[in-house]
Design a protein that fits this description.
1 helix; mainly beta; five-stranded antiparallel beta sheet; 142 residues
Length: 142
């Protein structure tokens, strides 16, 4: 192949590849829009102190899920233990909490106050001392 033909062929391939690239739109990664919801503890400031727990303790808390802009709808409320204490078991509305989030309420109305019961069970054989565990709450719109 002569050099002139090789250059012409290379130029033709480059131009056709460029037009193909221009014809196909690029796919862009789009970050998902996070749910703009907040969880408010109505009955307590978010810290639950049960005092001395002999074997069982329970407390009712009130939670409100709100959305920015005040729009209505429903949300799914989940809870899990961030730092579980092996000396006790914690349940919310009868559901045992662990390290993985579980659904506490699949259809909590946005803007409405909902009551939930937290139960702490400490076995008789558990060592004495303060229980140090954290319940994390999540809400996502439906």
């Amino acid at each position: 192949m002569r050099p002139a033909n090789a250059i012409a062929m290379l130029l033709a391939l480059t131009l056709s590849a460029g037009s193909i690239a221009l014809a196909a739109p690029r796919r862009r990664a789009v970050a998902p829009v996070p749910d703009d919801v907040t969880i408010t503890f109505v009955s307590r400031p978010g810290l639950l102190d049960l005092g001395s727990v002999v074997h069982k303790a329970s407390e009712t808390i009130q939670i409100r899920v709100d959305r920015r802009g005040g729009s209505r709808g429903s949300a799914t409320l989940r809870a899990y233990l961030v730092s579980p204490d092996t000396r006790c078991s914690i349940r919310v509305d009868g559901q045992l909490l662990g390290a993985a989030p579980i659904v506490i309420d699949p259809q909590v109305p946005i803007g409405a106050v909902a009551s939930h019961r937290i139960n702490v069970d400490v076995p008789v054989t558990a060592a004495e001392g303060p229980l140090n565990t954290t319940i994390a709450w999540e809400a996502s719109t439906n």
